[in-house]
Amino acid sequence: MYQPDAIALFTALGEDLIITANEGDARDYDTFSEEARVDDLVLDPVAFPNFRELQQETNLGRLEVTTVNGISSADVFTVNLSGEQEVPDAVTTEATGDAVLRLNEAGTALTYNIKLEGIDVGSFFGTPQTDDTGDDLQALHFNNADSGQNGPVAFGILNPTQEDELEVNYNPDGSVTLVGAWEVSDTANQPLTDFVDVLRAAENGAEVPLYLNVETEEFPAGEIRGQLTETTAYSEIYAYGARSFTIWDTDGNIIFDSGTELEAITAEAFPEFFNSDNDENTFETRSDAKGPEPEGVVVGEINGKPYGFIGLERVGGIAVYDLTNPTQPEFIQYINERDFTVEAQLEDGSTNPAVGDLGPEGLLFIAAEDSPNGEPLLVVANEVSGTTSIFGINIEVETLPDTAPIYEIQGEGHISPFLGATVTTSGIVTAVDSNGFYVQDPTGDGNPGFLTN
């Protein structure tokens, strides 16, 4: 719901409502515009147990989000493992690793998710190994010391005498992820309770006197290591700029937002020109900006029902919705008079008149009683093509039965098919109280009955 560009008022179900067209893009001067990629954020591993999958570049890692809220209150730590951190001498190696750890609220478990690259763990888990034995894992453990110092083993994750219960995942890129927990009940050289206060007292960005160390056949003292660092983690992530339309009540509460629906509609209509700009026929030019860019919105009443018309400035066209049920607007039609088979501009840079309408900016609804032809009209001003379009609106009037059975009025879904309409029914009055009276259909609900014994 970012950057509302147009606002319209309407009434549905007896309530005054507001609809906005949201361009959907953050700007540098806005205090809510600090954008980050998901793969640059540290996600709370409890809130996001699949955080590594989310942070893959092929998934949500490509999404830029605005993280103004949702900071986790948990004690979360990160580790970056490398040979450069080994002491007393740095190790030259291509092996790397990273980890996210979380101390639970009770202080009884430090969960960890460790990803190792260039380390062969097959000897521990009976999985195929590489011919090079130098990278064979010999031990993986927590050590107690500050950065730049060597310290004793506090708890062994993988070693010949102590082995934690682990979930092991082999990744397509050849890396391996180890998931487990150091618990107060685990056998350890130093119990977790010795470190709980230190972990909780750590400020954001501060290192604690615990590090992970990975020992291999070639480097038995340690090939890669990394210090635990307290980190701001996120239990929720927000993406402002839904490129949507939103319906609000007069108290400012959102009762509906279309989310990605407008982009889904335009993608289906013009898959080869999805998110084109309004001056060129290109694929996804606007995907990293405002997408179709909902620019204008107007509401008109037709046959007693409110309809919303949302103009999409970039790819062009008008999306039409039935707003009778404002919590679940019904998509009616998407119409776009732009011709993608011709270039949007001529060689001299002027707009090609054959392209049709480009850049719908302003919308005006004319009710049937005010229309010169007695039918409702929609007038659209297109700023890029310099054209004005007038659309006639022809919506069939649903003919209601003289009387409708109670079960048809109620329907089988959450919403009555007669929502917003006036209907006549008949039945048997079965009860009367302070709330009114209760009517039952003598034929039941119209569905077949079943007998069981």
TrEMBL record:
Q: Which residue ranges does the record assign to the CHRD domain? A: 75-230
Biased composition, class Basic and acidic residues, residue ranges: 283-293
Q: Which Pfam families match?
A: choice_anch_I
- InterPro entries, sorted: Choice_anch_I, CHRD, Mesenchyme-surface_protein
Give yes or no: UniProt keyword Hydrolase.
yes
| GO MF, any single term | alkaline phosphatase activity
**Annotated segments matching region Disordered:** 275-296
Swiss-Prot/TrEMBL keywords: Hydrolase
Hydrolase in keyword set: yes
Could you tell me the EC number(s) of this protein? 3.1.3.1
Q: What protein is this chain from?
A: Alkaline phosphatase
